[in-house]
Amino acid sequence: MQGDKIIDGRGAHVNIIGGAGITIQFIKNVIVHNLHIRNIVSANGGNVIDAVDHIGFRTRSDGDGISIYGSSNVWIDHVSMSNCVEGLIDAIEGSTAITISNSHFTVIMR
After folding, report:
1. What phi-psi label fits residue 59: left (phi over 0), alpha (psi between -120 and 50 degrees) or beta?
2. How far apart are CA 3 and CA 25, in angstroms?
3. Is 44 exposed, middle or buried, given 0-12, 13-18 or 19+ CB atoms closer than 10 A?
4. What pLDDT is attached to residue 88?
5. Is the Cβ–Cβ distance between 3 and 28 less than 8 Å?
6. Among candidates 54, 96, 55, which has minimal Cα distance to 74?
7. Consecutive 10-residue runs of the chain (110 residues): their mean pLDDT?
8. From edge to edge, which strands make up the β-sheet containing 64-69?
9. Residue percentage of the chain with pLDDT more than 90
10. What is the 3-state secondary structure (H, E, C) of 81-110?
11. Under a CB-based contact definition with an 8 Å cutoff, are residues 68 and 48 in contact?
């Protein structure tokens, strides 16, 4: 995913279940809204767009519901998450300006 994006589940019942979660990597200005994320497991990786002109390869997802790497201005709103193998949200590699609001988190499977 590139920056300046909205993942918007309003008006639909959007579920991410039983596979890899969402990766937000080296981008700015992302909104994740009204999703249900559960039963996330470690899974095989793939290509990750981390710049307008670069696609990197991620060998494996680690089982986080939402992984945020080196990103800023991320807003996670009205998201429900449960039963993710590694953790619900992981923000690393100097990620800043992350807001989590109006969300519901339950059961971490560590």
Report:
1. alpha
2. 9
3. exposed
4. 94
5. yes
6. 96
7. 89 90 92 96 78 75 90 97 92 96 84
8. 22-25, 64-69, 87-92
9. 60
10. EEEECCEEEEEECCCEEEEEECCEEEEECC
11. no
Which DSSP string corresponds to 30-61? EEEESEEEES---EEEEEEEEETTEEEEEEEE
Task: Say how far apart CA 15 and CA 95 lie, in whole Å.
Answer: 25
Q: How many CB atoms lie within 10 A of CB 24?
A: 25
| 3 state DSSP class of 13 | coil
pTM: 0.85
Torsion of CA 35, 21, 90, 51, to 10 degrees: -100
Rounded Cα gap, residues 32 and 29, in angstroms: 10
CB 29 within 8 A of CB 48: no
Q: What is the pLDDT of residue 108?
A: 65
Domain ranges of the chain: 5-100
- Give pLDDT tens digits for 49-80: 766 677 877 777 888 999 999 999 999 999 99
